[in-house]
Amino acid sequence: MATRHPEYYLYEDIPVIFIEPADGGLDCLALSDTNGAFERDMQFAHKTRFGTTADIRELDRAEFIQYVEKYRAEHLRGSGPAFALYETIEALKANARNQRRVLSDAEAALVRTLRSESHELFERSLREQGLTGMPDAPSNSESGSSGT
Fold it and tell me: Where is this region: Disordered (predicted)?
């Protein structure tokens, strides 16, 4: 059977990815709350693999991207197109809160779309700065599901 990597997890609310480096082994990347890049952080590997009382969830790639963008929007400040989308998402959520209701199905779908777009913009920005973005999906990945 083909390798399952990358694997996507939430450790508490921190997005974490397990990847196989070209030279073998296993690396763990965690999303930085200072710059939004993925940085090597092996402390999560041990905690995720060998047990802890932390809330750990494995996600598929599309769901993981949604959480990555939610995390970036909550922890980072800046300017540019991705941050404009974060502000739009927050305005939609604030409007629903002010009306004391949950997001409508259409609003929730719009939030998912805006997060997917912000992800592409943020990842491009990271790579332009020479920082590590989210690893690409393997080309031989399961062909039955695609992201939203």
Answer: 124-148
